Amino acid sequence: MTFVLGLTGGIASGKSTVSQYFKEKGVPVIDADDVSRQVVEPGTVGLERVVAGFGADVLQPDGRLNRKKLGSIVFNDKEKLNQLNRLLHREIRKKILAEIDHYKEKHTPFIVADIPLLFETDYEDYMSQIMTVFVPPAVQIERLMSRDQLTKSEAEHRMDTQLPLYIKTQLSDIVIDNSGTIEDTHRQIDRWLKEMTQKGFI
């Protein structure tokens, strides 16, 4: 029996920090962001769909997707972001579920599925438990502005494209508070790992 932990959070909440810690612990991690890049590689159905939906202007001269240009389009227009998600949703989902099945067939005891839009794209039923990485909205805005060199209104606009973190925490089995130090975050994960191991879940 494979225990599948769904890991989610919000933009600039520190989910990648938690994901990286699981990797350092030797836990296999399925990264939805990596999958989303793979499905738009040259020659893929995903890239064909993006070009059909947004035009050849989103391609670099070498035929690869210009992710920065596409990002500037979709993050400034919620409908275009929804359009992009619709175009790629099927390919991303198919690959993520195939990877989960791969680990189940190998009888891997514990894996992490790192999916930013886990709730928004209905992956709950595939998870044994769901962990959300939380920071207060003010911290999230500050970190996003600093990380991506955005204005406050731009940061808020990007956050508005996702389900609010406080709602995700209510839907989750475990919440990791990432508003403190990295060491604090690691300790919370270690406590959860110890508890789940003692209970025989992982």
Description of the molecule:
- It is a single chain.
- By secondary structure, this protein is of the alpha/beta class.
- It has two domains: 122 residues, Rossmann fold; 73 residues, 3-Layer(aba) Sandwich (Rossmann fold).
- 52% of the residues lie in helices and 12% in strands.
- The protein has a five-stranded parallel beta sheet with strand order 2-3-1-4-5, sandwiched between helices.
- Helix 3 packs antiparallel against helix 5 and helix 6 crosses helix 7.
- The longest helix has 28 residues.
Biggest sheet: strands side by side, in what order?
2-3-1-4-5
Distance between the termini: 9 Å
Subunit arrangement of the protein: single chain
In CATH terms, the superfamily of the largest domain is: P-loop containing nucleotide triphosphate hydrolases
Beta-strand residue percentage: 5-15%
Q: Structural class per helix/strand content?
A: alpha/beta
Instruction: Compute the number of structural domains.
Output: 2
Rg, nearest Å: 18 Å
Largest sheet: 5 strands, parallel
| Mean of residue pLDDT values | 95
Q: What gross morphology would you assign?
A: globular
Helix content: 40-55%
Total strand segments: 5
CATH class of the largest domain: Alpha Beta
Number of helical segments with 4 or more residues: 9
| Poorly predicted residue ranges | none
By CATH, the topology of the largest domain is Rossmann fold
Organism: Vagococcus acidifermentans
Function: Catalyzes the phosphorylation of the 3'-hydroxyl group of dephosphocoenzyme A to form coenzyme A.
Subcellular location: Cytoplasm
Protein name: Dephospho-CoA kinase
